[in-house]
Amino acid sequence: WSFRDITEQQAFERVLQESEEKYRILFDQAPIGLILVDTEKNKAGIQCNRQMEHIFKYTEAELISGNMLTFSPYYQPDGSVSQEKFHQLMLGYRQNFDPIHFEWQFMDADGVIRDCEVNFVPIRIRGEILTMIMVHDMTDQKLQQRTIEQQVIDLNRQNHQLTEFSYIISHNFR
User: Fold this and answer.
1) Measured between alpha carbons, how far is 87 from 93 in angstroms, rounded to an integer?
2) What is the spatial distance between Cα 115 and Cα 91, in angstroms, rounded to a whole number?
3) What is the full DSSP assignment across 46-66?
4) Quick count: other Cβ atoms within 10 Å of Cβ 156?
5) pLDDT 10s per residue in the chain (174 long)?
6) Model-level pTM?
7) Is 76 exposed, middle or buried (CB count within 10 Å of its CB: 0-12, 13-18, 19+)?
């Protein structure tokens, strides 16, 4: 019979398990959409979090089986074709794998256009390059911004009308 002390190994496994659990909780509970993508090999999604499912109204399986173009309208707000713009972004990203930040419109499962900020961040794991894609849904903020801009236009028009009216009134009293 021989005995081997596995106390150290058990402690290491416990620390590893706790670390994985913390990562999983952080990933799942993040307030932005996250999807981990195998950038080099098959370019497929590996996993995504609940916020990504909430933004797009698709299941994790649907999200990781597609790519950005699967969930994009034909045109982006600047008039460019989504496919062409995406390919340009990816060519630049894959040259150096430097993080990139850009705005993008997506279409959710209900056909609603979502205005988003997107970040691609390369993650090197055991010699492989994965990409953490972070998606922040800015749709509500953009809508509020457009509403405020329209209110400013309306107020400026009303101020102009008041100025003209006061000029007419003052001219008539002379």
Assistant:
1) 10
2) 23
3) EEE-HHHHHHHT--HHHHHHS
4) 10
5) 677 777 888 887 888 888 888 988 998 999 999 999 988 776 788 999 999 999 999 999 999 998 889 999 999 999 999 999 999 999 999 888 999 999 999 999 999 999 999 999 999 988 888 999 999 999 988 777 777 777 878 788 888 788 887 878 877 776
6) 0.75
7) middle
Measured CA to CA, the distance from residue 141 to residue 133 in angstroms comes to 21
The token pair that represents 151 in the structure block: 């209110």
How far is Cα 41 from Cα 129, in angstroms, rounded to an integer? 9
Rounded to an integer, what distance in angstroms lies between the CA atom of residue 84 and that of residue 74? 10
HSE, side-chain direction, 13 A CA sphere, residue 27:
15
